[in-house]
Please model this.
Amino acid sequence: MNPAEITLAPTRPAPEGDVVVRAEALRIGTGRTRRFVGLDHGAGISYFFVDNEPGEGPGLHWHPYAETWVVLEGTAEITMGERRLVATTGDTATVPAGVWHRFENVGEGRLKVLCIHASAVIVQTWADED
Model:
């Protein structure tokens, strides 16, 4: 057994009904980004699936919980406080709670990132509230 894993027996039956949330139901507007709010689906986490063109990315913001990024495709420059890091396909990075951060597609193709929020709801404070 891996010491980082705990093995327990299940204590509940599987949920009834449709538990698959279709991608189209999570789409934000007409763009390619999708938002999953865990509270709406009985989950303890939330996420954004981001699909950005070169030069695109969210503005500077922070959360009262950690956020973990999994780069599914492309190259991201991540700003985390004063640090700037580059993450590419397959890389994972985590920003702690309360740290200003952002990322931008610095590659030549599309950037696809799964942005996992350690919260059942999404709470964001933007540096530029305009």
About this structure: The first strand starts at residue 34 and ends at 36. Strands lie at 34-36, 46-52, 61-62, 67-73, 75-80, 83-88, 92-95, 101-105, 111-117, 125-126. The mean pLDDT is 94. The two ends are 51 Å apart (CA to CA).
